[in-house]
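Interim report, section 4.2 (structural modelling).
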Amino acid sequence: MKKAAIIGGTGYGAIELIRLLDSHPYIELAKIISQSQHGELLDETYPHLATYVTQPMQELHIQQLIEEIDIVFLATPAGVAKEIAASFLDSSIQCIDLSGDLRLSSSDYEMWYQKKPASEALLEKTAYGLTEVFQEKIKQANIISNPGCFPTAALLGLIPMLENNIIESKGIMIDGKTGISGAGKNSSAKTHFSTTNENVTPYKIGTHQHIPEIEKYLSQHVEESSVRVTLTTHLIPMTRGLMCTMYAPLQQDIDTADVIDLYKHYYEQSSFIRIRKQGEYPSTKDVTGSNYCDIGAYVDKRTNQLIISSAIDNLVKGAAGQAIQNINVMNGWDEKTGLSFLPVYP
Amino acid sequence: MKKAAIIGGTGYGAIELIRLLDSHPYIELAKIISQSQHGELLDETYPHLATYVTQPMQELHIQQLIEEIDIVFLATPAGVAKEIAASFLDSSIQCIDLSGDLRLSSSDYEMWYQKKPASEALLEKTAYGLTEVFQEKIKQANIISNPGCFPTAALLGLIPMLENNIIESKGIMIDGKTGISGAGKNSSAKTHFSTTNENVTPYKIGTHQHIPEIEKYLSQHVEESSVRVTLTTHLIPMTRGLMCTMYAPLQQDIDTADVIDLYKHYYEQSSFIRIRKQGEYPSTKDVTGSNYCDIGAYVDKRTNQLIISSAIDNLVKGAAGQAIQNINVMNGWDEKTGLSFLPVYP
Amino acid sequence: MKKAAIIGGTGYGAIELIRLLDSHPYIELAKIISQSQHGELLDETYPHLATYVTQPMQELHIQQLIEEIDIVFLATPAGVAKEIAASFLDSSIQCIDLSGDLRLSSSDYEMWYQKKPASEALLEKTAYGLTEVFQEKIKQANIISNPGCFPTAALLGLIPMLENNIIESKGIMIDGKTGISGAGKNSSAKTHFSTTNENVTPYKIGTHQHIPEIEKYLSQHVEESSVRVTLTTHLIPMTRGLMCTMYAPLQQDIDTADVIDLYKHYYEQSSFIRIRKQGEYPSTKDVTGSNYCDIGAYVDKRTNQLIISSAIDNLVKGAAGQAIQNINVMNGWDEKTGLSFLPVYP
Amino acid sequence: MKKAAIIGGTGYGAIELIRLLDSHPYIELAKIISQSQHGELLDETYPHLATYVTQPMQELHIQQLIEEIDIVFLATPAGVAKEIAASFLDSSIQCIDLSGDLRLSSSDYEMWYQKKPASEALLEKTAYGLTEVFQEKIKQANIISNPGCFPTAALLGLIPMLENNIIESKGIMIDGKTGISGAGKNSSAKTHFSTTNENVTPYKIGTHQHIPEIEKYLSQHVEESSVRVTLTTHLIPMTRGLMCTMYAPLQQDIDTADVIDLYKHYYEQSSFIRIRKQGEYPSTKDVTGSNYCDIGAYVDKRTNQLIISSAIDNLVKGAAGQAIQNINVMNGWDEKTGLSFLPVYP
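Predicted structure of the assembly:
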């Protein structure tokens, strides 16, 4: 039984980690750490955890963690995580950072996050936790940068097609749609029910920090120059769920059926990727509460475009679920351990 | 490992049973039976079950079930269930009926359901599956009538107060609020998104078949005459969740704190009942996806009324979850077996 | 053409007044006043008003208002309104206060709002703006206290029954359900989408400031002692809409049909009250965006209770619409002036 | 006062026409015709129309209409409309067809609708009712083919850019998002609340009948060859509202500010088009219940793409509102007549 701690215990990422870890057979959640609310009981904020919570949230003590804990999940905001992660560099702690701090090169991080980047030493030791694609690196790493929610859905849909030279590396459009929980727990106009309900709201057009993240990891899969993508993101009036509808120019004449076969082959060993059959496309509700990423595809012969639809639960495969999946891989456990439940439907 | 079958495999009750049984350690779901869709794969209707489903739904063969199966869940409509349940009377099958067929006396059933009632022989052998209250009878029964969703929330809130003579048995008002999944999977004006979204819709006022069910089981807890309740039900624009807000005249001068203590004491041994502390009330979201029933109370001294708020997930504690809880009790397993997960929040 | 000003221009009450006044034939909205945001353009906060807004919001200058303006709508928070309203006491300004400041007696206000009450001089000159019931007083008043949203729905349903001695004045239960816009424009956990969506949340049980308001105006309609009601309120995952489901002990043996006839007779002259026929009940969506209050009733012979269901749009009949209806009555215009549009459906 | 009739009186298009015509100063709605429900009162299906409806729906009698009526709105399904419209060819009736029957060339109609097309005589006399762009033709026509909901939003965003050679005519991607009312009044899995709530559902990918409609009217604005677009459509869990997020390769180096100026200039005379300022994008809620189309734009210099976001209420500008706007133009009235109300917000 490994001992885990969550740092940043009061956001939605942490709350979902708590739910998922509760049924993990090899991990015991030993500490929930919150700098802003230590001393408080978590179920005062989250009554759905009534009877679950037995001890108050704790302050952060790095040395104590290094001594007592095996696994640390960083569910802190960008900017905070990189400092904490650096403290574990020389320890044996397995650290999963759910923020964006360790996802980009220093220069890109500075430009898109407008914060000071993590040290090169830290970035070099960090593996990007898109489990299905980077699991060899994940197995050997102690520090994982857990992917952003849009990048998870986008990369899982695009990488197999780019690797197989099905689509061009230029002219890829990603239309992202996310539930409001993606905007976090803080109250603002952006998360106000009366503002967001019965509404579709585009946001951060052209400026979303997930753009360079998607481009960085796509570029690792084509030889030549760097890939550029266009990403728009939209708030959808639902709590959970994220979809990327993607458009990419075809490099070759291919049928939908063959594209689907390619996907199936690519993800043959991946328990959490489900490919829809021809003529069917995933809905976000098909994956709610689960770690699945469902993918559908359509070759538009009229316009020579491949249309890809990729759906995840932003809090599971897009955050806490993938974090646990990475921990499973790092520890040599089956990637499904503690994650093999069906979606909650309807 | 016990073998289970679900009969009526395509409604929401069945779908939730499938989700929950999938993580039950002692039950294997061996057969999904559907008279209307046998031969089909369930994931054609429900793509969220993709990769889970490996064999088509089957026709109903009673004798085969008796030979091969240990546990049968009846997720069929009222009217159908009682015929099937009767076939198992002399077998060793443990049968849980999720319909209303076995919940009322013959005369009440005829009046409120306007169908021919089950045989007296069947009714006599049936235990009412409100697990927390009737577990002694459930342990000894082979046939369980699983409670309706409103009765579950209402009875769990009212019974401790009636038993302890806190409230009068006359003048109880129950204001029921349910998510649209309570109206089932069939498409109609009542379940149409454009009709029900951004809407509160009262329905079946004074005529809901859950009225006699609540009255029957409340009456078993007061000596004198029969209890009468007023129940209204409202469709709420959400998928899951059910709340009963209840009003009952106080029999004695008592404080909120004492009422809360009484509840805590009454449900001391019950894993799934959580009592809110003074000044707090449950939201339906606090129990989503879980088998919990959360209860809050307030003594309104100004009007001498007890106000009780009781929240469940209508598809879990109000249907499939309680069915499995009953099976656990019938088999001597911990009632939490396969049901000990946290709510999905947010 | 009368000139109007709105004070407190950035809340939902003001925004709805702007929408409704825009099509009023006899009122010109001359000023929008905001102490916190004067100098700003309202469409920066509310882009749906783009092209409508031509001048910035202004500071409050009482004397200037008295000289230039005929009608003032106070859409300010409780506590602020009573100070401003007092300034108009000796002027010819018609002032409608949408806050709770002028609704209660001094002692009740102090107890339930926990603020210093308005002066007796102001309270004496104020008429309560439940248009259908108090129009004679409204015609003669210059200062109107516009009713709260729950009291509007509750009183319109209860008063005809109390006046006609159909129901008892004791044992009335009001189960209130409101859309999230009722919680206002400010961001908080209570208005957060992820918290409130897919959820029913009871709040302020036993402590809602609308309780004494309902009781005060009900009591004016029965000779004997004062009426006491039990009110609970619930947040429903919708933006607009409010329903009171009410339960009251019958004083006499009467049929549903006769109750409905009584309502129809009582509201014969009232353009905005629509009585549902026997067996039908209003949904909140039936009145969305309109000034209607729809009422349905059912005599529960089994329990000797009258069940009343009353639905309004909380921002229209529950706030801005009724405010304009009152202005119409005060000026001798048809009460429908500027308000005679159909509900927005679906 | 012109007399109008609606044929197909029970769908959402008709219901919205009734709401809007009710406040039109020059049009009297004289007849509501329904082949399937004639003899019934419309408020039996739609209680929000209680007190509005005074006469039952009628059967269709073409000759009677020609004699008594000036304006006919066809709110019938595709396939039915073209037969009725043909009957008015030699009459003086102004006919607006809200279905897709008259929008495409015969060959395209046959291919995409898989029905027999309208006669050439009828198609030749029909003007396409995208009011802002085709008003000269609309003024001279008696028969109008009212645009589809997605084409309205897409064309209003794309045409000014194509006409001004800002974007290429190849490689245009349109990501469409619509509220569930776009799927109509009929109950099906696609409109079931429990299926569609908390969900984003792609549908008709590559096969939507709005694809050839968009292409046909875009092609009329570029000299050379025909334009091809990629369109995907998604059901969003909201009742009303439609957004097209569009991506098009830039033909020239241009700044966002200049693009916005071009839009403003193009729509200078158009009362219902509102262009967002730089850095802001429309939400569907900004136009709910109104005839506005709000447009925002962003030049993505990184990828040399123009991103356009265009939002309408699918039932107003996307159907009934635009139909009335066309009637206004045909009769020489101000296009805003009866449509100049503000959006319903929040």
